Amino acid sequence: MSMIAKTPLPPYYAVIFSSTMSDNHDGYSEMADLMVKLAEQQDGFLGIESARDEIGITVSYWKDLESIKNWKMQSDHKIAQKNGNSDWYARYKVRISKVERDYEFER
Q1: Is 54 within 8 Å of 20 (Cβ atoms)?
Q2: CB-CB neighbours of 24 under 10 Å
Q3: Total count of domains within the chain
């Protein structure tokens, strides 16, 4: 993913998912792609940005906390969370933040 998400004027919310991978990557890429497609279909989803090297960081943007809660409970996302805990991640941390201000530059 190489695009910067186009988000509305604040306020909105950001879910910041930082992770390091385990040695087992079986099925990870396919599930990650599916999660993006499913998130895009969720009410309240605003956009996503992601980068991975030694540490992966994915930031998803949401209209409100209720939208984030509904995404966390989505059935396929729950399967991905289970597989992440059992197989794919050595460590992860989730942070949820309210975006009160944003600005940008584009050449």
Answers
A1: yes
A2: 13
A3: 1
CATH number (domain holding residue 40):
3.30.70.100
Distance CA 8, CA 14 (A): 12
Which residues have a Cβ under 8 Å from the Cβ of 62 and sit 6 or more positions away?
A: 12, 13, 14, 15, 44, 45, 46, 68, 71
Residue 6 counted as domain residue: no
Amino acid identity, position 69: K
Tens of pLDDT, residues 65-96? 999 999 999 999 999 999 999 999 999 999 99
Residue 88 lies in a domain: yes
The enclosing H or E element of 79 equals helix 75-83
